[in-house]
Design a protein that fits this description.
With 273 residues, the chain is mostly helical. 68% of the residues lie in helices and 5% in strands.
Length: 273
């Protein structure tokens, strides 16, 4: 085996390890609890471990960043000698001096390793985690948790230092990835999904639900005299006639003096008509 082969093998291994940490980092942040929790409740150990990781997001991010940093620092050191040796012989044909050959080989190694690192070590795993976050989290979070437990003392120190810096700037550290949405965010999601055709709201029921939360009792109350009321004694046919005339599904039952006493839902009498 040529002496440069181990260096090239280490280059591939470190790119794969770096890709793992990048993919796991983005997957833990992007995964949705609503998709992971049912799997965990059904007995999936991978889902339960993934939930554990999502609830300790800062620990997982610190582990990922440590792994990415180590890989980034080591990858050029182990690959540059191998690439230099691989290029040394063909570059010697150009008539360059040994020092120039070393410089050119280093520049080529730097450009090549940077390209491989950015594309295959960063962008590909990141895009994969964003495209299928739940599947990526179930696949990558369990081994990331194992790594975090091995280096937990070091991670705890680094995490404590990072949180201390945040507190100096009056920023409260968070350990769990945010997976809940505010009312405005849900409304925006519905609006965007409807616009892109992934959600059908032809009657406007969903949009009206968000608007309804802004209304007060004064906005929706009406006088008793305007209510469509039914007498205490009424037949299913009479109810049907009132439904056909008004189109409502719920009706107030009023006493002889007009005071409401209860209400009737149409579904309670549908099978009697």
């Amino acid at each position: 085996m040529s002496s440069y082969v181990p260096g090239l093998i280490w280059l591939i291994v470190l790119l794969a390890v770096n890709a793992f940490f990048v993919g796991a980092e983005f997957a833990v942040i992007s995964a949705r609890r609503s998709q992971i929790e049912p799997r965990a409740a059904a007995g999936s150990r991978a889902a339960a471990t993934t939930l554990w990781a999502m609830e300790r997001a800062t620990l997982m991010l610190a582990t990922s960043q440590l792994g990415i940093t180590v890989c980034s620092l080591v990858i050029l050191n182990v690959s540059e000698p191998a690439i230099h040796q691989l290029l040394e012989y063909p570059l010697s044909w150009t008539g360059l001096t040994p020092s120039m050959v070393t410089t050119v080989a280093f520049v080529i190694a730097l450009v090549l390793v940077t390209f491989l690192h950015v594309v295959f070590g960063e962008m590909v795993p990141k895009n994969m985690a964003f495209s299928v976050p739940d599947r990526a989290a179930l696949l990558l979070a369990p081994p990331l948790v194992m790594v975090s437990r091995v280096v937990r003392p070091l991670i705890w120190v680094l995490n404590w230092i990072a949180n201390s810096v945040l507190r100096l700037f009056r920023v409260a550290p968070k350990d769990e990835a945010t997976s809940a949405y505010t009312l405005d965010q849900v409304a925006m999601i519905v609006e965007q999904s409807t616009r892109e055709g992934t959600l059908v709201d032809a009657t406007g029921t969903l949009s009206a639900a968000f608007e309804f939360t802004e209304k007060t009792v004064d906005d929706v109350e009406i006088p008793l005299t305007q209510l469509v009321a039914l007498p205490p004694v009424v037949t299913p046919r009479q109810v049907r006639a009132v439904v056909e005339a008004s189109g409502y599904s719920r009706y107030v039952i009023a006493s002889a003096d007009g005071a409401p006493t209860s209400y009737l839902h149409v579904k309670d009498v549908l099978d009697l008509v």
